[in-house]
Amino acid sequence: MGERRTWADKKAEIMSRPGAGAAYEAARIRFELGETVRRRREQLGLTQAELAERTGLKQLAVARFEAGGTMPTIPMLERLAEALEMRLSVQFQPLREAS
């Protein structure tokens, strides 16, 4: 059997592969957007079905988005923002400040 490795070692190996950093960053963005939408939906006391109705989406699409399963377009983010009674703000940040 092979030598056991720590998660940190395994992660470092995976992240060293070509394109892994970009894929990781895209997944992080999807997750954070979905989490933000879910939290705001819950603050408003809406179900996924109600949010779907407000945005013209299907409930399954809302669920998938909240789970970080899809990368939205700007128009979709605008629809979600309006349905969640929020204003969409898109920013560019220097890499040293982004986390």
From TrEMBL:
Q: Which SMART domains match?
A: HTH_XRE
HTH cro/C1-type domain segment(s): 37-91
- Write the record's keywords in alphabetical order, separated by commas: DNA-binding
Query: Which is a Pfam family this sequence falls into?
Result: HTH_3
Question: Record keywords: DNA-binding included?
Answer: yes
The protein's matches in InterPro entries, at most eight in alphabetical order, are given as: Cro/C1-type_HTH, Lambda_DNA-bd_dom_sf, TransReg_Diox_bact_type
Q: What is this protein called?
A: HTH cro/C1-type domain-containing protein
Question: What lineage is on file?
Answer: Bacteria, Bacillati, Actinomycetota, Actinomycetes, Streptosporangiales
